[in-house]
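[PROTEIN RECORD]
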Amino acid sequence: MICSFLSTNQINSQISIRENDIVEKAVVKPSVFDSLTNIVLQRNIIDYKKYIGYKLFFLPKSKKYTSDYGTSNKIIDYLFSNDSIEITKEGKLPFDEVVLNQVSYGSKADKIKYSKQYKESLKKYEKIDKEKTNIYKPQFYYERTDKTDGKIYGKIGTSSDSVEGKYFTILDIKGNTNSNRKSEYKKLDDIDLSSESPSLVNLQITLRNESNKDTVYWIGQARNIGTPFFLVPYFEKQRNMYLNQNLVLKSKTSRNSELENLIDVNTGAVINVEYGDVWTCSDISFIDSKDSYYLAGFYFLRNKNRIVKIDLTSNLIHDYFMLESEFKKQELEKLKKEEQRKLEEQERNKREKQEEIKFRNDCIAKWGQNLGSLIADGKVKLGMNKEMCISAWGNPININRTILDGLTWEQWVYGWGTYLYFKNNILSTIQD
């Protein structure tokens, strides 16, 4: 019976083959990380993945920065943690002062003594100076207190001491295209950018604070990426490439307005970088700047007793300068090409001279000393035949022919406004 069951089951069993196609999403490879630029906006959202695994440095605030609108203090409101924390707001008014402000009749004792309303209000009031937040390392920045109800107004941001000057490692990057940046974030591969500008995509960058190993989330629009972070491999790459190296402009036409009005950091004099001048990159570092809220990075170039600084993120060094060793190699190549050009020109002139001599000798041998010399000098004379004129002037651009009474008349048109007239193949008239 068992054998019969197995036999029947094997006969009825079939392989199932699905006829409908299965759409499989292609996996796009991000562009290669080259550390030749700081962390910047990417046209293709998938290319943000190339930054994963690399370190960022959170730039400290500049002590020299001044704003046209008075003192400026940016709130760090773009770093978040997984955990919500309840913080107490600063700026609370005494409860009695709030109640007295709201009630304008009766004595103070009548207003508050053993009042049930007062006790209930007191419990409620104790809560209005507290708030839950998932801002990383939160700190309350007080703005004002409403004296009518005691409500405290202000902003919550990350404590600057907990992040400035710290290193962070990028662990992951996700995104969404919703107007609400708190919406769910998806893998970059799953984001459709058909109806959204790449700069407006919301990014969620997972970071590890290397000072305490905390997991932190940077959340903001892609156009704001990088501020106030600086990509550590980019900084290291620039130091490896240019520090203590001699630099020269790539060419005489390498002009840029930012290179024409540099300021000597010691004297304040206007400096123009000229082609052929050798500048030594004596330092690459960050400094306090009155023009930047955060520390600003610069290349410092020295030429004798002159020192200028160039923005570390401007690409001016990469676009307009080259190493002196490469410059010398380039100049040597130019010299070799010029020498080669002169040799070729001499050879060409020698060859042309030889051809002229041979042409003159051939003309004299064929048509005699008088006519041959005229033809070799590019001159025509009445009585010459067509062959002589062609040898002297070359072929005309047009020929007009007339046959009359057995005679053939031809007008030869030359491009410089001169006409030759032939009667039976002999030059009879020259019209200039």
Summary: Residues 233-327 form one domain. DSSP finds nine helices and 21 strands in the chain. Residues 55 and 169 are 4 Å apart (CA to CA).
